[in-house]
Amino acid sequence: MHRLYLVPTLAINFVIILVPALLTIALAFFRWDGISAPVFNGLGNFQALAGDRVFWSALTNNLIWTAIFLVVPIAMGLLAATMLLIAPRGRTFFQVVYFLPVIIATAITARVWQGMIYSPVTGLFGLMQKSGLPVVNPLSLPTTALFGVATVDLWHWWGFLCVIFFAALRQVPQEQIEAARIEGATFWQMMRYVLLPGIRPTITLMMIMTVIWSFLVFDFVYILTQGGPAFSSEVLSTLAYRKAFYDLNVGQAAATALVISLFGLVATYFYIRVQSQEGEQ
Amino acid sequence: MRLVESRTTLTITYFVLAIGAFTALFPIALLVLNSLKSAQEIVLNPLALPQTIRWDNFTRAWNDARFSQTFVNSIVLTGMTIILVCVTGSMSAYVLARKKIKSWRLVTGYLLATTTAPIQLFLFPLYFGFAKLGLINNVFAVSLVYTAIYSPFAIMLLRTYFLAVPKELEEAALIDGATHWQVFTKVMLPIVSPGILTVALIIGLYSWNEFLIATTFLQQQDKVTAVVSFFLLSGQYSSDWGEIMAAALIIVLPIVVLFVFLQRRFIEGMAGGSVKG
Predict the structure, then answer these.
(1) pLDDT class for B10, splitting at 50, 70, 90?
(2) Residue B177 placed within a domain
(3) A residues 124..183 contacting B (CB < 8 A)
(4) From B262, which residue of chain A is nearest by alpha-carbon distance?
(5) Does the residue B19 lie in any domain?
(6) Which of A229, B112, B141, B175 is most exposed by smallest CB count within 10 Å?
(7) How far is Cα B25 from Cα A155, in angstroms, rounded to an integer?
């Protein structure tokens, strides 16, 4: 009887996710323009990707992105969360403020940064140029475009981590903190030996999620640079999207999607392991 | 809890926290400030206060982004998604939390795995399949896509609420002759209703803000969502940044107001679904 309760969820899930996902795996071995009949292509799509300079730079960009997001927002979030722990007043206020960027639509965040900050005409950068500062719109240069986009995502993201870490820090047993204080621990010792170990499961989980999310990043790149200039900020998800809907090369898009999933899969394995361990407790 | 009391430490603490707040608020302040200015004033200095407040930015934004139509689209899409996720998700969460079926572990693992599946893994066949079936520009079809994507998160979050309900309540109702369905709808659902409200809020936020699926599946002028119509306005129809920021503010303001009033629910919900499992 209770099995029926799962039917709606699983039916929707299978139709929208599972079946198309299996089709994507199949399509990765076909040549297909989305309209005519697919033609079997063996490993042709993967060979084409392996020979494609843009594919490799997109993959590298995803790895750079992952590295940035494993360090910067997690460090910012941890720092702010511990400061919140010390602050006797204003915790709710700061949490709400830090969380605001998280709830604003990515399309809007992207446009605000594009027009009001980076733009040489209407933005803060333009104003700085006029006053003689040597700043350039980072989105317009191949060497900096990816970092320009990443900065926007960082702004959008670190508050989420701060709030999560703060919630976890508050659950560190009071006795451990008291004991450390009586022993005369300094703040940094407290961090190093009591607080950080106390929230290690949360940090681990957030790092796993960061890896997964870093390979999914799409909105900010698509809106801010479309992967440009000269593919310098292209990531795998925008590359796959372009191949499918602009080049009508769905086979190669599917193959790219499989590469994205491969990285996600490894992280997902650890995610499920961590999650189910917590579920058992 | 207080770790340290020294005045210097507190000063440094608040200094760091203030830098964080400034970082978070600065772009938002630019959004609000420039939504009140003319295009020329923005070019002159995006940081300056408006000389005259240009309320007409908002009326022009409302018309040019066709918000009277696209807001309705967004509300319908968001509403349908919330209902679908809450109805299907609460049933699944109940069964999985109470381990009513033998394969609960497998199903839970599968759902967790789909939360991390990249959209690109299923997007392309889904799009061409929908195109074949004539489901592009169909709001209901898009709400099904959202439901599939957001359900696992909702189920994991609701599961924790169901787990907190004492088993004895269920058993007592069964002994009194209630059917299993009655136990679920009359006993369990009212108790977990705060959880369902939290899920509704967060799924509502996600659907309202979503971009990739909406821009791919809803292309017809009268079907696009508010966020996508903002994107189109700012991309091709207008280079008047006063108007663009006004359009942005119109979309963001209701969400921010809702968030400030219900921040605890939002934050705990978003944190809970992804952290506690």
Answers:
(1) confident
(2) yes
(3) 124, 126-127, 155, 159-160, 162-164, 167-168, 170, 174, 177, 181
(4) A96
(5) no
(6) B175
(7) 10
Q: What is the pLDDT of residues B120-142, one digit of tens each?
A: 899 999 999 999 999 999 999 99
Q: Which residues of A touch B145 (CB under 8 A)?
A: 16
Contact at CB, A267 and B116, closer than 8 angstroms: yes
Mean pLDDT across chain B: 89
- Whether the CA torsion B122, B125, B127, B132 is positive or negative: it is negative
Using the Cβ of B209 and the Cβ atoms of chain A, whether some distance falls under 8 Å is answered with yes
Within 8 A of A124 by CB-CB distance, chain B residues are 30, 46-47
Instruction: Check if A34 contacts B (Cβ < 8 Å).
Output: yes
Partners of B94 on chain A (C-beta within 8 Å) are: 5
Tens of pLDDT, residues A92-149: 999 999 999 999 999 999 999 999 999 988 899 999 998 888 889 999 999 999 999 9
How close is the nearest chain B Cα to the Cα of A143, in Å? 24
Is B84 inside any structural domain?
Answer: yes
Between the CA of residue A153 and those of A29, A195, A228, B27, B73, what are the distances in Å? Answer: 34, 27, 17, 13, 27
Contact A108 B251 (CB under 8 A): yes
Assess if residue B55 is contained within a domain. Answer: no
CB under 8 A, 24+ apart: contacts of B182-187: B184/A5, B184/B91, B184/B94
Given CB atoms, is B34 within the 8 Å cutoff of chain A?
yes
| Chain B residues closer than 8 Å to A112 by CB | 27-28, 30-31, 245, 248
State how beta strands A30-31 and A39-40 pair.
antiparallel
**In terms of Cα–Cα distance, which of B89, B139, B191 is closest to A9?**
B89
Cα separation, A277 vs A151, whole angstroms: 34
Question: What are the extents of the domains in chain A?
Answer: 52-280
Query: Best residue in A1, A5, A82, A200 to probe B by mutation, most B CBs within 10 Å?
Result: A5
Could you give the CA distance from residue B258 to residue B277 in angstroms, rounded to a whole number? 26
**Structural domain of B171:** 65-237
> Is-contact A208 A271, C-beta < 8 A?
yes
Q: For the domain that residue B95 is a member of, what is the CATH number?
A: 1.10.3720.10
Q: How many CB pairs under 8 A join A and B?
A: 307
In our burial notation (b when 16+ CB lie closer than 10 A, e otherwise), range B168-203 reads eebeebeeeebeeeebbeebbbeebeebbebbbbbb
From the CA of B231, how many Å to the nearest CA of chain A? 6
Q: ipTM of the predicted structure?
A: 0.90
Domains: count for chain B: 1
Arithmetic mean of pLDDT, B142-155: 94
Interchain pair A244, B1: CB under 8 A = no
- The pLDDT tens digits for B46-78 are 898 888 888 999 999 999 889 999 999 999 999
Q: Are A264 and A187 in contact (CB under 8 A)?
A: no
Centroid of chain to Cα B117: 18
pLDDT band at B1 (very low <50, low <70, confident <90, very high): very low
